[in-house]
Amino acid sequence: MIYQVAKWKTQGAEANLKTPSFGNITTCVLEQGSDSNWLRCKYI
Questions:
Q1: What is the Cα–Cα distance from 28 to 32, expressed in whole angstroms?
Q2: What are the residues whose beta carbons fall under 8 Å from the beta carbon of 11, sequence distance 6 or more?
Q3: Which residues of the chain form beta strands (DSSP E)?
Q4: Least enclosed by CB within 10 Å: which of 8, 33, 35, 41?
Q5: Pairing of β 2-11 and β 38-43
Q6: Neighbour count for residue 38 (Cβ, 10 Å)
Q7: What are 4-27's pLDDT values in tens digits?
Q8: CB 1 within 8 A of CB 18
Q9: 17: which DSSP letter?
């Protein structure tokens, strides 16, 4: 199994000149199949 964790953040501009900001942490879990290819199991 492979665990991948990433922190992301984005900012934008609204018509009222405010700059909203959003962010979170994502986790992806991959598992190796019987044919040796990696398959994504869960994406949280």
A1: 13
A2: 19, 20, 21, 22
A3: 2-11, 21-32, 38-43
A4: 35
A5: unpaired
A6: 11
A7: 899 999 998 888 888 899 999 989
A8: no
A9: S
